[in-house]
Amino acid sequence: MINDILKYGIMYVVLVLVQVLLINNVQLGGIYSPFIYILFILLLPFDTPRYLLLILGFLLGLTIDIFSNTPGIHASATVFAAFLRPGVLMLISSRDNYEPGSAPRISTYGFEWFLKYAVILILAHNLFLFFAEAFTLHGLFHTLLKAIINSFLSIILIVLSQYLVFRK
Fold first, then answer.
1. In this structure, which long-range contacts are made by residues 23-31, counting pairs with CB atoms below 8 Å and at least 24 apart in sequence?
2. Least enclosed by CB within 10 Å: which of 56, 74, 104, 166?
3. Terminal CA-CA length for the chain
4. Distance (Å, rounded) from C-alpha 17 to C-alpha 82?
5. Where are the domains of the chain?
6. Is residue 121 a contact partner of residue 42, using CB atoms and an 8 Å limit?
7. Between the CA atoms of 12, 113, 161 and 71, what dihedral angle is there, to the nearest 10 degrees?
8. pLDDT digits (tens, 9 = 90+) for 25-78
9. CA angle, residues 85, 163, 62, in degrees to nearest 5
10. What is the three-class DSSP state of 112?
C-alpha cells in the first residue's frame, strides 16, 4: 500500500514536471503540444474508487493549470477524463477480466487493448480541453483539428512511454 502511494506519487510529480518543463516548451507549428500528464489517470489501478479518480484528476489538472496559467481548463478536462475512465474500461472489456490491484499496462493487456483505451480517453480529454478553451463553436473545424492532432501526438508519446518507461 505504502509502496503504491509512493510509486504513484513519484509518477505524478515526474509527469507534471515533464509536462510543464519540457513538453509545454516544445510546440509543433506554434499550436500543437501533446499532453503526457493524462498518463497518470490512465495508469491508475483498476480498482481505484471513482471518488479518488475524480479527486486525483482535479488535483492533477489544477497543478497543470497553475504552472500553465490557465484558469481551470486542464482541471475540468482531467476530471472529465477521470469520470469517463470506468465507463471506458467497461466498454472495451468486462470488469471481470481485471485482476484486483493491477493497472492498465500495454505489457499486461496488449497493444490493441491499450491503444483503444488510451485513444478514447485522450481524445475525450483533448476535445473537452480545446472546446472549453475556445468556448465557442466559431472555428469549430480548427478547434476539432487542433484537438485531433494534439491527441495523436499525445497517444504517440504515451504508447512510447509504455515501451520505454513502464515496461513492467
1. 23/157, 24/67, 24/68, 28/153, 31/146
2. 166
3. 18
4. 20
5. 2-164
6. yes
7. -40
8. 876 666 778 999 999 999 999 989 999 999 999 999 999 999 988 889 999 999
9. 40
10. helix
Residue 109's CB: how many other CB atoms inside 10 A?
A: 18
Determine the Cα–Cα distance for residues 162 and 109; give it in Å rounded to an integer: 12
Q: How many residues does the chain have?
A: 168
DSSP string, 51-101: HHHHHHHHHHHHHHHHHHT-SSHHHHHHHHHHHHHHHHHHHHS-GGGSPTT
What separation in angstroms does the CA of 65 have from each of 61, 111, 166?
Answer: 6, 31, 26
Which residue reads 507549428 in cell numbers?
Answer: 29
DSSP, residue by residue, 6-50? HHHHHHHHHHHHIIIIIGGG--BTTTB----TTHHHHTS-TT--H
- The pLDDT tens digits for 64-120 are 999 988 889 999 999 999 999 999 998 987 656 677 778 888 888 889 999 999 999
Other beta carbons within 10 angstroms of residue 34's beta carbon come to 24
